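User: For documentation purposes, I need each entry recorded in a consistent format: the amino acid sequence on its own, followed directly by the corresponding structure tokens. There are two entries in this batch. Please keep commentary to a minimum and don't merge the entries.

Assistant: Recorded as requested. Entry 1:
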Amino acid sequence: MKNNIISSKIMLLLLLLPLITSCHGSYHDYTDALTKSILFFEGQRSGYLPQDQRMNWRGHSGLGDGWTVNVDLTGGYYDAGDNVKFNFPMAFTTTLLAWSVIEFGENMPPSELRNALVAIRWSTDYLLKTVSQPNRIFVQVGDPVLDHNCWERPEDMDTARTVYTVDAPNPASDVAGETAAAFAAASMAFRSSDPGYAETLLRTSTRVFDFADRNRGAYSDNSNIRDGVCPYYCDFDGYQDELLWGAAWLRRATQGDNYLSYIQENRQTLGADDNTNEFGWDNKHAGLSVLVSKEVLDGSMYSLQSYKTSADSFMCTLIPESSSSHIEYSPGGLIYKPGGSNLQHATTITFLLLVYANYLEKSSQILNCGTISVGPSMLRKIGKRQVDYILGDNPKGMSYMVGYSNYYPQKIHHRGSSLPSIKDHPQVIACKEGSTYFNSSQPNPNVLVGAIVGGPGEDDAYDDSRVEFRKSEPTTYINAPFVGALAYFSANPNIN
């Protein structure tokens, strides 16, 4: 009888072990997740695909982009599950990929560092084309209304590839400022491996920033642009943050006193202290504060102290025990902000937590969050909780990264993934013919490995459905900061 009781207890313990492990940090292969998070970008490529393309269910697409304006605008990335190239989020994606390499490249296996640089260059090569003419910036390729009325593979695309252009003195401070930031950050990422390319990027960055600063205003305020970019990537939060963000990256890349003066003197007029609790493709404030804080924490630039104060304040809002905490968490522990595609907040904030933890550690400093003191280890724990949630430690036990683990979203809102590959079905699938596949209850035929979907809402609920695009659509700017986070944990997996 006693042996039966012991056996029953052992059996119960074995049954509970997966739940206990899930609650207290199960094992994750962060290096595998890192590999997949970078591979995802190959599935988003537009243009002529190289022979070493690994996401081999994709084919060439958008090969005529730019012909209507006599400019080669091939290349770049589709932002999400559609076939439009929106430069505003693409440039932000590029900045964050480059920042991931700058901060965490040394944590990456050499092969993945190379792959990350390839992913950055796929974008910067395209962005260089968009600013190739003086006093002009091409900000988008593809009519989104027509595109969203079709469900077709990028390889079959027959909707209008309208090119949206801003000429000086019309304003485009947001897109141009973010593009300047992308070039400056990428120049640092390439500095050791390709100094000539790095120099080209940096030289172009200064020119594009001048365009942004001289022609102040939001690109979506241009009447010939508005209907093409709104409501998709309208500038909702103003253009001022991108000017400071671009200048801050140029300061970091050049150490130039002119850019130092810019971010000092324009801090108030350009609203550096406004709405500092956001970071994403449209709002750079929290990222700006963290980026500039490095100079203060390195002990040299106390004239920038107000940026560090904002960064400290932002970090304290993420600490549940802090009196200034006001970030919401789902019952399962996911950072939650109202609006669609919630994981874009979780991945960008996680990235900032890890970057700031490194800055604090190197300067031997801690945060004072009201009644509690917060060190780098606490910031990293919060970041790790977000990473682990996304990889499967959540109430559904689902990885929100496609292709990672055995249980992940099968019916993501993504045209190329949901339609038969052009390799398997070479015949054209026309605009409305794709609806059959969109409405299918079957899993997507092509696995977009590494894609992080929009994810669950405030209640941790997730329905695996193409229709629910806010939850099931991946985007490049969800993935980009996650590359840096995974790089950190691939080298430091045992932080608890």
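Entry 2:
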Amino acid sequence: MEELNSIADSFKNKCILVTGSTGFLAKLFVEKVLRVQPEVKKLYLLLRATDAKTVTQRFRSEVTGKELFRVLKEKHGKGFDSFIAEKVSLVAGDISCVNLGIEETNLVETMWKEVNIIVNSAATTNFYERYDVAMGINVLGAKHVLDFAKKCAQLEILLHVSTAYVAGEKSGVILEKPFQMGETLNQASGLDVDAELRLVEERLKELHADDVEPHLERTSMKQLGLQRARHFGWPNTYVFTKALGEMVLGLHRARLPLVILRPTMITSTLQEPFPGWMEGTRTIDTLIIGYAKEQLTCFLGDLELIMDIVPGDMVANAMMAVAAAHGNHQTETIYHVGTSVSNPVNYAVLLDSGFRYFTENPRVGKDGRQLETHRIPVYSDITSFHRYMILRYRLPLEALRVTNAALCRLFQGTYDDLSRKYKFVMHLVDLYKPYAFFKGCFDDLNLERLRRAVAEEEKAKFCFDPRRIDWEDYLANVHIPGVLKCMRK
């Protein structure tokens, strides 16, 4: 790979289309581009909205209105709004529709003429999303973005953001290799995207014919997605449909330059534009928040297994480096962006860092009293976990139920509180069990080659080297405080 002397210069005078523009990672990418390359020609940001007024409101409240843009605002001062107006073009659309749902014909034709780089980060990341919704965004959406890209006369690269966990529950070293259409994780036969789309359509027709209630339709479609995912070897609808999206891109790309980026679990920023920025609740953050709110009293998992997390700014930096390195390369390349090979950290470090943080920064209960910081029990086998849950929750709940029946619901508040905690723990275990016992590590040889190709003077400005992370310091002093700050907003 040739040396990358100036990543920022690769974006000078370029037009970039970004889908999923209100998402966590897309915002990090957009902010970084605008901060390091003010001479970018245009950023077309696709947002789901019905009209120009709505798209502007969403952009201001969900993008530039966020603290993430604080540094850029300080840099431009009073000229910030005019800078954004000059560099950013807001596009109302929806990737689940043909032509990305863009209704303005003139705008579509202008974009086909101008766009050099497309970053597709739009996705539904809900593990148990409705199957029709997940197929529409993660699969058909990828195809619609590809079709749009093929019509862009000056396109240099399509960068598609996927997830490393399209690997399902594989163990050992997982290579940076593309999926073939119809490939499954359990050798089951018969996986066909068109057949899955027909299945979705038929199920919806059946539900509508039966005139089922909306909540029952939602439940049925969620169950269908989970059933299809597990039938072919994936643990949930999200990673299954992301894998299908990759297959569609690989099959139909022809000679279009394509890079698929597979990040692992993305966490708060390490350095840029400042440490600890994050948005939403993602993966390990649910555990941190659950403990902070006294909802998490135990968990199921193996503390010695690797917890593959990567700070969000490192992923954004890798996105820029990948786009700079692969422009006009008529190939398909896969990049894992993670830490399990280059700088592994296990779940025990998260537990220790949390204990350290909450010991130094004690929680305060609803009554104003300081809460005791203690280590939660973590069970590495399902039998011990269920035994704990029976003793800690099920038996007391049954006793409270009988008592409430006899004493006119005298302890109903206590019952409801204990029931909420029980359901919270069981929900988290159901959600994260495939990852709490994940025994794979993601080979990042392609990313390592890219790191070596980046010029020395660029490596600090576009850092995506996991070896620079001090995990104990990052978790206790950056990430956990960032999660709690986000929780309080």
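Summary note for entry 2:
The first strand starts at residue 15 and ends at 19.
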